[in-house]
Specification:
The protein is mainly alpha-helical. It is 31% helix and 6% strand. It has one domain. Strands 1-2 form a two-stranded parallel sheet.
Length: 94
């Protein structure tokens, strides 16, 4: 999901790019209050800095989530509505 529009732009309309999103659609939910688990949002914030994916977040998402909210561009919940290329979504209900 993160790279669909990025790759499409790189190919400069030489091919028709479509995506299939077949990995988990992670949601921004708080960890259980009684647990000592780190929320997915906190983990995602750390990952963004670690993998240095800032150039692949997509202009629309970066403008929507400026500054400290930019980590949201790594989560499907926030990125999917801003994806411009056609795609199919396949999610397991396990």
């Amino acid at each position: 999901m993160l790279n669909l529009d990025y790759i499409s732009a790189m190919l400069a309309r030489k091919v028709q790019v479509r995506g299939i999103f077949d990995s988990a659609m992670w949601l921004d939910m708080n960890a259980f209050p009684s647990s000592k688990l780190t929320s997915l949002a906190e983990q995602t914030q750390k990952v963004l800095g670690f993998v240095m994916a800032h150039d692949h977040l997509g202009d629309k998402c970066v403008w929507k989530y400026l500054g400290s909210q930019r980590w949201k561009c790594l989560m499907g919940q926030y990125q999917e509505p801003l994806t411009t290329r056609p795609f199919s979504l396949s999610e397991s209900q396990v």
